[in-house]
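Figure S7 source data.
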Amino acid sequence: MTDPVVPIPHERAEGENECEHALVHLNEYLDSEMTPEDEQRMRAHVAHCSPCLAELSIEELVKQLVRRSCAERAPETLRVRIHEQITILAG
Ligand SMILES: [Zn+2]
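Tokens for the predicted zinc ion complex:
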């Protein structure tokens, strides 16, 4: 089971569909289950979209930490803390 990804609200309307695409496929990307087309599209998008890059980095970090600690899932507090740190950096 994976939690639904909560998108970070974006102010720019232009990249809306690409952001949606990136967030929808986030977990597939992390699990390397993406099709090459989707992966390329996502990489191209996060290269210039810092909110999506931040979201991707958060999930990647949480995943790494969870794997390292052998926990079943990251505590919500950890996720929130990483989220805060990364959005500050990305902002
Ligand atoms: Zn985006």
